[in-house]
């Protein structure tokens, strides 16, 4: 069961919104390859899909034809879905586009119920509203879109388009200036924390967690650990990259983040293992190797100590909760 990520393209989709996804996909695949290179060529088994309402190519805002992998009628369950903003030349075209897209409402509700994080930009967030997925959220729409939204449903809660609206499972972007942050947040939640932090750093996006006592050197060290945690030599390699001794690195890291590098690596391995257990059908022994444990017995002991359950029990319970 691979980790599936989807770009849902509507007619008139913004080139910027589609481009952010394409850039993120390329960077992500390269970083996953590097993170798990020492243990596994397949890494996180993440699969990217581009979808349209009917599975046919879609004309983007600049009239270019964009090919897709299939329609939303498939039975896949996605971890993250991105809906870029779409543009309409006039009110008639906008109304027609919204009517066609309304067929997506049941599919969006189903994906959300299966645990997908869904992000939408601009007019596309009206599809989430129409699906009943934003009832407790204010939509950060531009003034022209607010006028259109009021015509569709006067009861919609609206806000000024100054920042993302983020509930955790639903992310709403006011437009192109915020689309990269919306996509990166969604990918962070679908993938390992370390890879998500790498993408945020690559795009120059702010992080949710700030450490006032952390120096730039230790922030870099933390990011390097998140990129190399699957290696048995992760701590030594990071210390060498920073040109300090392992003992000095441990002291400085603990002072900055109130946790040792070894404990932090163990946390990263545990988080990554949980992600693989939940979203892939890999054997537990293979997962142990992939996240950095050469001895699967040690991994099983660590996992049970940390969670109170065996890895097999944890996987079964999570998949039962999600109806998988």
Automatic annotation (TrEMBL):
User: Start and end of every HTH araC/xylS-type domain?
Assistant: 219-317
Q: Which residues form the signal peptide?
A: none
The answer to whether keyword NAD applies is no
Query: In terms of domain of life, where is this protein from?
Result: Bacteria
> Known PROSITE patterns for this protein?
HTH_ARAC_FAMILY_1 (PS00041), HTH_ARAC_FAMILY_2 (PS01124)
Q: Which GO terms describe its molecular function?
A: DNA-binding transcription factor activity; sequence-specific DNA binding
Q: Name the coiled-coil region(s).
A: none
What keywords tag this UniProt record? DNA-binding, Transcription, Transcription regulation
Which Gene3D superfamilies does the annotation name? 3.40.50.880, Homeodomain-like
Question: Which InterPro entries does the record match to this protein?
Answer: Class_I_gatase-like, Homeodomain-like_sf, HTH_AraC, HTH_AraC-typ_CS
* Chain segments annotated as transmembrane: none
| Pfam families noted in UniProt | HTH_18
Supply the PANTHER family for this chain.
Answer: ARAC-FAMILY TRANSCRIPTIONAL REGULATOR, REGULATORY PROTEIN POCR
Q: What is this protein called?
A: Transcriptional regulator GlxA family with amidase domain
Originating organism: Novosphingobium fluoreni
């Amino acid at each position: 069961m691979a980790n599936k990520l989807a770009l849902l393209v509507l007619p008139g989709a913004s080139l910027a919104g589609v481009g952010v996804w394409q850039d993120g996909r390329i960077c992500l695949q390269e970083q996953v390859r590097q993170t798990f290179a020492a243990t596994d060529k397949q890494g996180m088994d993440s699969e990217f899909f581009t979808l349209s309402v009917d599975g046919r190519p879609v004309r983007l805002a600049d009239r270019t034809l964009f090919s897709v992998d299939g329609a939303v009628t498939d039975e896949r369950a996605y971890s993250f879905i991105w809906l870029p903003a779409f543009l309409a030349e006039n009110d008639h075209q906008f109304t027609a586009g919204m009517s066609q897209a309304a067929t997506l409402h049941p599919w969006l509700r189903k994906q959300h119920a299966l645990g997908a994080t869904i992000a939408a930009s601009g007019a596309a967030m009206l599809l989430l509203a129409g699906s009943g997925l934003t009832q407790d959220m204010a939509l950060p729409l531009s003034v022209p879109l607010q006028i259109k939204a009021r015509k569709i449903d006067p009861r919609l809660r609206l806000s000024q388009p100054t920042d993302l609206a983020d509930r955790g499972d639903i992310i709403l972007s006011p437009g192109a200036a915020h689309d990269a942050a919306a996509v990166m947040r969604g990918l962070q939640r679908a993938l390992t924390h370390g890879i998500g932090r790498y993408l945020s750093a690559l795009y120059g996006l702010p992080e949710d967690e700030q450490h006032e006592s952390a120096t730039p050197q230790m922030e870099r060290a933390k990011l390097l650990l998140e990129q190399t945690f699957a290696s048995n030599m992760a701590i030594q390699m990071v210390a060498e990259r920073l040109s300090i001794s392992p003992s000095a690195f441990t002291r400085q890291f603990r002072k900055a983040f109130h946790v040792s590098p070894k404990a932090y690596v163990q946390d990263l391995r545990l988080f990554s293992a949980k992600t693989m257990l939940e979203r892939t059908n890999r054997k537990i022994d293979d997962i142990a190797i992939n996240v950095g444990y050469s001895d699967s017995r040690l991994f099983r002991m660590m996992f049970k100590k940390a969670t109170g359950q065996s890895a097999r029990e944890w996987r079964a319970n999570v998949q039962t909760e999600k109806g998988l």
